[in-house]
């Protein structure tokens, strides 16, 4: 996702052993924004009967600092349904993990 020239939001769906069962792109945006509603995030998880998922999106600028919008969608998604939201990762020159930062 580092090489993308626009933001892309992707869900990585996992089984109960935390193995990847599918990767689904759910939104494409501009160079600095890609809005995704919780229903768009959960739809593939429900369709694939996922145990859990990781939300991933890129920052084409390479900057992995999270925005206020990134933080808000993370909080909103974490409160919905009984599917394990394991992490939200921002990909840039490196990566930022909301789980590792204690924000999830």
SSE inventory with pairings:
Elements: E1 8-14, E2 20-28, H1 38-47, E3 52-58, H2 68-78, E4 84-91, E5 95-97
Parallel strand pairs: 3-4
Antiparallel strand pairs: 1-2, 1-3, 4-5
Order of helices and strands: EEHEHEE
Helix content: 10-25%
Q: What's the number of structural domains?
A: 1
Instruction: Write down the CATH class.
Output: Alpha Beta
Structural class: alpha+beta
Going by CATH, the architecture would be 3-Layer(aba) Sandwich
Q: Largest sheet at a glance?
A: 5 strands, mixed
CATH topology: Cytidine Deaminase, domain 2
Q: Please name the fourth-level CATH homologous superfamily.
A: Cytidine Deaminase, domain 2
Mean pLDDT: 87
How does the overall form come out from the CA principal axes? globular
Number of helical stretches of at least 4 residues: 2
Give a quick summary of the entry.
The chain has 104 residues and is an alpha+beta fold. It has a single domain (8-97), classed as Cytidine Deaminase, domain 2, CATH 3.40.140.
Give your account of this protein's structure.
The protein is globular and about 35 Å long. It has helices at 38-47, 68-78; strands at residues 8-14, 20-28, 52-58, 84-91, 95-97. It is built from 2 helices and 5 strands, in the order E-E-H-E-H-E-E. Strand 4 and strand 5 form a beta hairpin. The relative contact order is 0.22. It has a single domain, classed as 3-Layer(aba) Sandwich (Cytidine Deaminase, domain 2). Strands 2-1-3-4-5 form a 5-stranded mixed sheet, covered by helices on one side. With 104 residues, the chain is of the alpha+beta class. The two termini are 22 Å apart.
